[in-house]
Amino acid sequence: MADFPKTFVWGAAAASYQIEGAVEADGRGQSVWDMFCRKPGMVWNGHTGDVSCDHYDRYAEDVGLMKQMGLQAYRLSIAWPRIQPNGVGKPNAAGLDFYDRLVDALLAAGITPWVTLFHWDFPLALYHRGGWLNRDSADWFADYTTHVVERLSDRVKHWMTLNEPQVYIGAGHMEGRHAPGDKLAFKEALLAGHHTLLAHGKGVQAIRAASKQPALVGYAPVALSKMPHDPKSAADIAAARQHMFTVAAETAWTNTWWMDPVFLGHYPEDGLEFFGKDAPTPHADDLETIAQPLDFCGVNIYQGQYVRAGADGKPEEMPMPVGARLTAFEWYVTPDAMYWGPKFLHERYGKPIVITENGISNRDWVALDGKVHDPERIDFTQRHLLEAARAIADGIPIQTYFHWSFIDNFEWAHGYKHRFGMVFCDYENGGTRTIKDSGHWYAEVIRTNGASLG
Ligand code: FCB
């Protein structure tokens, strides 16, 4: 039977631009996503986050649903342009007030807020000043962070700086398929990446300096787990571990390039070699700033790849078998990513693990019986949580799990095509919410502290 420690925390996550709507309310400035959504052809069917779930106006109802599900923690993000409409300068009181109300509502419902400072809604005004390519971006971020922490840290203890830098730098600044939609040369993208890592470090310093209570601080990169093709083979396990932390063209963007500087204080050597003259030249002390001590290793885990020891002893990535399980996003369902990913990350970085996101896109709708039946989400989550339990049993300190997502939302370039929530949002009919079968199922998992997983 799945055995979770009594201290294990069960949560769900969402992010500001994906659920809030109300993009013009109370002095909010524009973000790069507001601009990007208006570029023809960039978002599926021309969708935008203008209204989304209207969580900005309906947060009290949403917190009520979270309470009904028994969530113990909720990972939310703050929209920087609500706090500083131009990205810098005097904070906008009405923007801070919104998060103040949200935090109070969560606490009143017995739900611990975990706050991410940046989940991709970068202020458009700062993009016009060079965005992450401008080295000042690290100070802009630290200043913004200070305002938020000064306001909320009497009640908020758990903080994350950045969500998935490899995605907003890679997809947003290099591939051009996310906001702001740039296709920078590799060297420039890596420079923007360096500045964003610096922003992380300065952000951590700002949190520790401004917090009114001892803060627990982390970071939320995505990791592509590598799993041994044969979990009984020591050679395959070693190959998977090596592959997870090797910089190759396709993995530089997912693992060590973004985690070694933060946890180990240096860029991975193979990456520096591989990227050669494209690699950034850090200023003195940059890496010390980036490597501020963290309290946990947050990680978004959605999928992984199988690796075996090849004939020449080198790791060899295995193709997925014909007919392998796929989500609506066409991501492979690989539950053991939730065992091997945390295990390898813990071995390398030595931190407790917080699963900051994990979930599945599904084609859900309201059935004739008025309910939302999402057996795939239940099965997906059950399998992943059982793997988390296995990792915990093997001594890997996974402390917290956030399901992505609490509610269906704006899935970036895919608009509303994908549904990730445990709560259904009926966008067409005034945003009516329905807790899906998975939400009721998760409530039972939480109530039994995982025992109901079997
Ligand atoms: C992650 C993002 C999150 C959501 C999920 C599906 O990459 O952090 O906002 O879009 O994927």
What's the topology here?
Elements: E1 9-13, H1 16-19, H2 32-36, H3 55-69, E2 73-77, H4 80-83, H5 93-108, E3 112-118, H6 124-127, H7 137-152, E4 158-163, H8 165-174, H9 186-210, E5 216-220, E6 225-228, H10 234-244, H11 256-264, H12 269-275, H13 286-290, E7 297-300, E8 304-309, E9 315-317, H14 337-349, E10 353-357, H15 375-393, E11 398-404, E12 423-426, E13 432-435, H16 437-447
Parallel strand pairs: 1-2, 1-11, 2-3, 3-4, 4-5, 6-8, 7-10, 10-11
Antiparallel strand pairs: 8-9, 12-13
This protein binds beta-D-fucopyranose.
What does this 3D model show about the protein?
This protein is α/β, with parallel strands linked by helices and 454 residues long. The chain is 38% helix and 14% strand. The protein is built from 16 helices and 13 strands. The strands form 3 sheets. The protein has an 8-stranded parallel sheet with strand order 5-4-3-2-1-11-10-7. A 3-stranded mixed sheet has the order 6-8-9. It has a two-stranded antiparallel sheet with strand order 12-13. Strand 8 and strand 9 form a beta hairpin. Helix 3 runs parallel beside helix 5, helix 7 runs parallel beside helix 9 and helix 8 packs antiparallel against helix 9. The chain is globular, with a radius of gyration of 21 Å. The protein starts with 8 loop residues before the first strand and ends in a 7-residue tail after the last helix. The relative contact order is 0.15. Beta-D-fucopyranose binds next to loops.
Question: What are the salient characteristics of this protein?
Answer:
alpha/beta, eight-stranded parallel beta sheet, 13 strands, 454 residues, globular, binds beta-D-fucopyranose
